[in-house]
Amino acid sequence: MTENLRIMFTPEFFMAILLPALIGGIAVTICSSLLGVTLVLKRYSMIGDGLSHIGYGALSVAAVMNLAPLKIALPVVIIAAFILLRLSENSKLSGDSAIALFSTTALSVGILVSSKAGLTNDVSHYMFGSILAMSKSDVILSVILSAAVMLTFVLLYNRIFSVTFDESFARATGVNAGFYNMVFAVLTAITVVLGMMMMGALLISSLIVIPTLTAMRICRSFKGVVLVSGAVSVASFLIGMFMSLMLNTAPGASIVIVNVVFFLIFMAVGQIIRRSGKA
Amino acid sequence: MKKILECDKLTASYDGMKVLSGLSFSIKEGDYLCILGENGSGKSTLVKCLLGIKAADSGKIIMGDGLKSTDIGYLPQHTNLQNGFPATVSEVVISGCLGRRGFRPFYSSKEKAIAQQAMERLGIAELASRSCRELSGGQQQRMLLARAMCAAKKLLLLDEPVTGLDPAASAEMYELIAELNQKDKMTIIMVSHDVVKALDCASHILCLCSNDHSFFGTPEEYATSHISSKFIGD
């Protein structure tokens, strides 16, 4: 353990590996928690999960064909996000089974293609994430895209609130709810693909869902939930990263476990507040 | 009084079925119109057309006095407020100002003042920082009515505002609506199932019937017409 600590704080390791991972990671965790608030409240939690599996399929195919992974995965996932949101809105088709169908198909294609081509090692990075192996250009791209997601969220904050809270009223006041749902699909797709590279396809949806659920245990206001979920997810990320380096555990899984611990603590605190409020 | 809204031979369909055909009526500023009708008679479709969410197949809706469909204060049917949504009363109420904002992203002090005024007018100012999931049914409806008032320039469109409320809360709600109509000179359009109450408080009745015979007139005229008999049961 002390050996790990010593390596961690050598300037070379810090500058070359840890710092980029931290910057990219913080950017993506903030994005996923912001979008998570709306996805959870609109009952779209599973879309993030479905998209990550579709992204995995796309990344595997891209890797096998020797194409730049992100350039293939981003458009594929954005298109998938449109389709899944449409299906979830359309009550004639059951959204959750459609997501299951899409995501398992894409996952299977990804596994088939990559195992056939003998690329299992490379591609398993996307399954479980590889935050410490991100290239400099990956980090720069993540930061730019995350900044764009955050800026869009802040500028559209009031509209996002209105569409999330009550879509029929939002439409009546002249807000083009369909358009904002599409914008939302694009933002979610970008975040999911970026998150996959770090956390892995299996765990990215937890970054979207858990911080919001955590914040909802104690916050009364929408703004409070947005701010607290962002703070909780950044804190979980930092603690989880530190833990994984100290104990040599998988970073993605460590971050998720820290998130779950925060959730349990907030749940207990929320219970206590509610009890004392009633007494 | 000036005409504020006119429907001219409006025809509209829902899911491919024609539910409104050749509907004509008009209301003036300060009117209180109740829209009655059975389920499936086209009330919700008419509401959507008035709000500009849905296009009519033919016919026109003409707004007077520079009113736009987004200037209508809308109180949706009770069903879509989800349980456990984290939002404070003031966050919900001010979201009614969104239509006034255009493309500017944040609310100004002017909009905050409008929201504050609406909350005071409806007696929920002291609930402003409470979470909407802690409110009673009646308080929730007041909150949504305050949001509608933020959006409204002159016209409030209320879709079954008392559904799900207990008798005391319904009575309060009706009283509040009547006050907004008389004191604040708000024009009211209310979709309702409560015929007796409608005859009591409205200045005009629009009754949509499935067999193309719709009625438009005053409560007195409605009470003596043959359409009313099957609703009131003589």
Summarize the structure.
With 279 residues, chain A is mainly α.
List keywords for this structure.
heterodimer; A: 279 residues; ABC transporter involved in vitamin B12 uptake, BtuC; 85% helix; B: alpha/beta; Rossmann fold; 6-stranded mixed β-sheet; 25% strand
* Global geometry of chain B: globular
Number of domains of chain B: 1
Count of individual beta strands of chain A: 0
Low-confidence blocks of residues of chain B: none
> What is the string of SSEs of chain A from the N terminus onward?
HHHHHHHHHHHHH
CATH architecture of chain A: Orthogonal Bundle
Mean pLDDT of chain B: 83
Which of globular, elongated, flat, extended, rod-shaped describes the shape of chain A?
Answer: globular
Domain module count of chain A:
1
CATH architecture of chain B: 3-Layer(aba) Sandwich
Count of helical segments of chain A?
Answer: 13
Strand content of chain B: 15-25%
Coarse structural class of chain A: mainly alpha
Largest sheet features of chain B: 6 strands, mixed
Protein architecture, described:
The complex is a heterodimer of chains A (279) and B (234). Helix content of chain A is 85%, strand content 0%. Chain A is mainly alpha-helical and 279 residues long. Chain A has one domain: ABC transporter involved in vitamin B12 uptake, BtuC. Chain B has 234 residues and is α/β, with parallel strands linked by helices. Chain B contains nine helices and nine strands. In chain B, a hairpin with a 2-residue loop joins strand 1 and strand 2. Chain B is globular and about 50 Å long. The two termini of chain B are 34 Å apart. At the A-B interface, helix 8, helix 9 and helix 12 of A face helix 3 and helix 5 of B.
